[in-house]
Amino acid sequence: MSRVFSGIQPTGEPHIGNYFGAMRNYVRLGEQYGKQSLYCVVDLHAITNPAASDPRYLAARTFDMAVANFAVGLDPSQVTFFVQSHVPEHQELAWIFTCLTPVGELERMTQYKDKTAQLESVPAGLLMYPALMAADILLYKAGVVPVGEDQTQHIELTREIARKFNHHFGETFPEPQAVYNKEALRIPGVDGHGKMSKSKGETSTLGILEPLDSVWQKLRVAPTDPARVRRTDPGNPDVCLIFDYHKLFSDLPTIELVNVECRRAGIGCVDCKKKLMEGVTAHLTPIQERAEELRADPSYVRDALAQGAQEARAIAAPVMEEVREKVGFLKV
Q: Which amino acid positions bind L-tryptophan, per UniProt (predicted)?
């Protein structure tokens, strides 16, 4: 059975985009692959982002990301869950891949272009980000990688790096396949401007551990169909992000009711949002209650991360031994 690998950044509060786009997929694949599924909080990637690498918050955010994953149903006794920096082989393999990867290949990455356009000074680590991501995946010879659609280009580069290493040093790494969560490829931001993203700040996101009062305040003022000016105007749910959220949180009868009543002005936007909030509350309350239980017992979370790192290193160490030998490093 192929191994599964995916990482999630601790750059801010986990939001519903993370949840529907990745975290629920982790739980599903974990039930299918068991200990052959490896997930990690990629804190080394986080420090490539100057706005997210504040050392006062990095450890706490890393811990909170583990709490969030466990709260949504990921069982650390059934999968391998760990923190990236706790397994130093990630950095060692990343350096080898960096030396194999042309700068031009890294510079053409769309995410690199997008992020550098927002920075006055570009850290070299941001350019090398895809080489580290390739190391994350190939260190465990993973064949299945659950990712968001925005990571497709990075997975293609990972496959290219695997081919290049295999060509130069002998067959070593498989070429991994991306697996997408078809149910939620692109969750819109609550501000109505593109994809929900932590990089856009809290005004764009609905946190899965965010107080429900705060979630409601964001939904209450969230944009709807711009053509629906008055309560009596018919609306078009197909262009309304609130209807997109209904598809995630509401049951089928509610979705069908909103779809029909909005089009004939039988329901107003505020009432529609209140119905959505019912689904949000039902969905997030048990997650938030579980998170509170985990925060009350931090030793459980820390022990789980330590165990996960031990399990990950048991796989990573022999792979790096193989890589060192093939690259030609002198043995001790």
A: 136
Reported as a pLDDT band with limits 50, 70 and 90, residue 99 is very high
Rg (CA), the chain: 22
**Which domains does the chain show, CATH number per domain?**
3-187+298-327 (3.40.50.620), 211-291 (1.10.240.10)
| Among 113, 141, 182, 198, the one annotated catalytic | 198
Binding-site positions for ATP: 9-11, 17-18, 148-150, 187, 195-199
Residue with tokens 């931090």: 298
Residues tagged in the binding site annotation: 9-11, 17-18, 136, 148-150, 187, 195-199
Q: Among 3, 7, 4, which Cα is nearest to 151's?
A: 7
pLDDT in tens, 133-177: 999 999 999 999 988 777 889 999 999 999 999 999 999 999 999
Which residues sit in the known binding site for L-tryptophan?
A: 136
**Of 9, 25, 151, the residue nearest 159 (C-alpha):** 151
* 218 among known catalytic residues: no
pTM of the predicted protein model: 0.90
Half-sphere exposure (Cβ direction) of 10: Cα atoms closer than 13 Å: 27
Q: Is 198 a catalytic residue?
A: yes
Q: In the annotation, is 195 catalytic?
A: yes
Q: Exactly one of 195, 200, 274, 326 is catalytic; name it.
A: 195
